[in-house]
Specification:
With about 270 residues, the protein is of the alpha+beta class. It contains five helices and 17 strands. It has a five-stranded mixed sheet with strand order 10-11-12-13-15, with helices on both faces. A three-stranded antiparallel sheet has the order 5-6-7, with no helix packed on it. It has a three-stranded mixed sheet with strand order 9-8-14, with no helix packed on it. The longest helix is centred in the first third of the chain and has 22 residues. The chain is globular, with a radius of gyration of 25 Å.
Length: about 270
């Protein structure tokens, strides 16, 4: 990711964050030399480097195999764990506090906002959903999967995985966190990079009637009080016949112009 500093020193990447023994996120500016820290990516011990020459950072303690560790894996695990902890805490409150998310819809191109936990009773981390294992999975009271959450660090979700979730009416919420996002995990609103749900009612579908009837009642009121747009049996509009795309002849345009001009003269 562009936001990650990949400079190396003594075969260790410059990690700006680690975790303490309680699993809490610690950024290098908060570190203390006398405290033990661990890597979010591999779990190995880390030490804070806070000298006067190099930029302050965490480094793996010498003598440990960190071959498979990377800043991407550390960022992925940190965001996944912190998001899980936040959702779990929200669900355990007496009133089940909401968790608002906001995203740009790829279907209607509008911006949507909704409560991610509206119909959620439980959250699991890395639990199998069919033959796949999402980072987080959200469950309804009847123990059916409501949505999955994927934290994207290096690899995108495979298309066949997306298809499985879609076929089983499971919403997909994707986050592509940066280092800055770790500090915003407890903000009032989170901003996933993608959500395969549209909250806009009566959405027109251009030239895409395939499986429309089959999809027609797949989703009902997911994250707000309005139904998922496809459940409304959206109007299928053909681009060639839609009024906005109709071509008007020059002759008709001229007649219309003269008609409006005459109307102004008469007034």
């Amino acid at each position: 990711m562009n936001s990650i500093n990949r400079e190396k020193t003594n075969d260790n990447l410059l990690y700006p964050f680690a975790k303490n023994k309680h699993g809490e996120l610690i950024i290098i500016s908060e570190a203390k030399r006398s405290v033990k820290y661990f890597c979010w990516g591999c779990g190995k011990p880390m030490i804070p480097k806070m000298g006067k020459i190099r930029i302050h950072h965490f480094a793996h303690k010498p003598g440990h195999d960190i071959t498979n560790c990377s800043l991407e894996s550390a960022l992925h695990n940190a965001y996944k764990t912190m998001l899980y902890n936040r959702i779990k805490a929200n669900l355990l409150t007496d009133t089940k506090s909401e968790l608002l998310i906001e995203w740009n819809c790829s279907q209607c191109l509008d911006t949507h906002r909704g409560n991610l936990l509206k119909k959620v009773a439980n959250v699991e981390i890395e639990k199998n959903v069919g033959q796949y294992r999402p980072d987080l999975s959200l469950y309804r009271k009847d123990d059916t999967v409501h949505a999955v959450i994927e934290i994207i660090a290096t690899h995108e979700i495979e298309e066949y995985t997306r298809q499985y979730y879609s076929d089983n009416k499971i919403a997909i919420v994707e986050f592509k966190p940066t280092l800055e996002d770790l500090a915003k995990i407890y903000d009032e609103i989170l901003y996933p990079s993608s959500v395969n749900v549209c909250l806009k009612e009566d959405k027109a579908v251009y030239n895409n009637p395939e499986n429309l009837e089959e999809r027609a009642n797949d989703y009902t009121s997911i994250w707000n009080d309005r139904a998922f747009s496809i459940a409304q049996k959206p109007t299928v509009i053909d681009k060639d016949t839609h009024p906005a795309n109709q071509k008007t002849s020059p002759f008709k345009t001229l007649i219309e112009f003269l008609r409006r001009l005459l109307a102004k003269i008469v007034k």
